[in-house]
Amino acid sequence: MDDYEQLSQSDNEEIDNLIPKVYITYKRRWFYLFVVCLAQISNAFIWINFSPIANLGVEYYKVSYNAINWLSLMYMIVTIPFTLPSTWLIDKLGVRAGMYIGVWMNAIGSIIRCFSTLTVIDAQGRFVILMIGQFLCALAQTFILFIPTKFSFIWFSEKQRSLANSIAIGSNFFGILIGSILSPIIVPDMSKIPLLLYLSVIPAILAGILCLGIRSSQPPTPSCKAVVHTQQPFILSLKRLYRSKSYVVLFIGCGIAIGCFNALSTLVQQMMCPFGYDNVTVGICLGWFIGAGSLGSLISGYFADKTGKLEEISKILYTASSVAYIILGLFIINRVWRYLVYFAFAFVGFVSIPLSPISMDLSLECVYPIPEATAIGINVMSSQIMGILMVVIFPKLGRQLNEYEMLIETCSKDMKDKIAILNYSIPLYTMAFIMVIVTLFYFASFKCKYKRRRQH
Fold this sequence. Notes:
Blueprint: H1 9-18, H2 28-48, H3 54-61, H4 65-93, H5 95-114, H6 123-144, H7 147-155, H8 161-186, H9 193-211, H10 225-228, H11 234-241, H12 245-272, H13 279-307, H14 310-333, H15 338-352, H16 355-367, H17 372-397, E1 399-400, H18 403-408, E2 422-423, H19 425-445
Antiparallel strand pairs: 1-2
Helix pairs in contact: 2-5, 2-6, 2-7, 2-8, 2-9, 3-4, 4-5, 4-6, 4-17, 5-6, 5-9, 7-8, 8-13, 8-16, 12-13, 12-16, 12-17, 12-19, 13-15, 13-16, 14-15, 14-16, 14-19, 16-17
């Protein structure tokens, strides 16, 4: 497959006449970046709330583990049908309008979730309210998640773009970090779940207020030559995306890699509690996972800006991720020293989470001048599909606990109602095997032509 047809020579000549000779960046871009980051943190915090305390959610709302998993699956499922409409709106109306829609929808959803704590409503009705609020936050994600790459491209110079993009996307993971660590601390027992929901509203409302300070979607003058270049019509862009071999490889490879991240983040408590790890330990593991991942994103973004070697960096990250997932599975299943488990989670996060911002940048390099939100949205949709499949399939691969595992499990500790508990050894090994296959596929198939960079 060829990547896609170049713009006609006449179009290029017309564009060159309009391109300014000097490019300026504006200080307010850092405030806008902060607002984008806060929106990412708030939305991700809401997404991950119940994953480290899944057993307490089961008891509070009188539902099954599968029902609690749907709080996370909701984000992934909503992304699939709403990606194209939201990316079209972002490209059509601009970053500012996309932020307004996403941030305030997220705030409204977080407020609705609080009504699920009303004791005058039965447990089943309260869970329905929680799901409605979660749906709105998931819908908000389709705007919030696709803005960073487009925002970084428009407001930052080519020397700062990868770093800005890594900071913005890394903020999403930082929100997961905060949720992973704080949820078990705030909710030692199910009676504290209302407090967790109330606290979730604060960053959502704050992001909504600060968002009003974004005055425009684009700077008064372009930040670089590539911004001026003509972009493709929406429908034509979709056709040309799938004519690009390099983009299709990223669609598959990055989709599966981030899908593994989504599955691990969603199922981590259910994966670890059969081996004797309590909720606080699970939260600390997720904290190391996301914290190291955020650091890895910053470091990889810095080196990507300095060296320009996005493809080489991505291949290093894929290779290291394969090794990291193997180590993680072995350490959890064999119940090694707890600090080694922390190290394994940190290692997986450090090398796998940076794949997201690096892959986003590579996508734009491969398919330029297709609109940024469209290219990123389709790529993210792939990771959500893969995540859904893994979250649905992995529990079916689990087996019943043996007598020894029944003695050490912490899943049902201090719980009145009996819940179904599974051993996740096979899913952990399966996830590692998938990453190895994806790495081999990526090395054999991917080659980037850096089309966007040629315009600078």
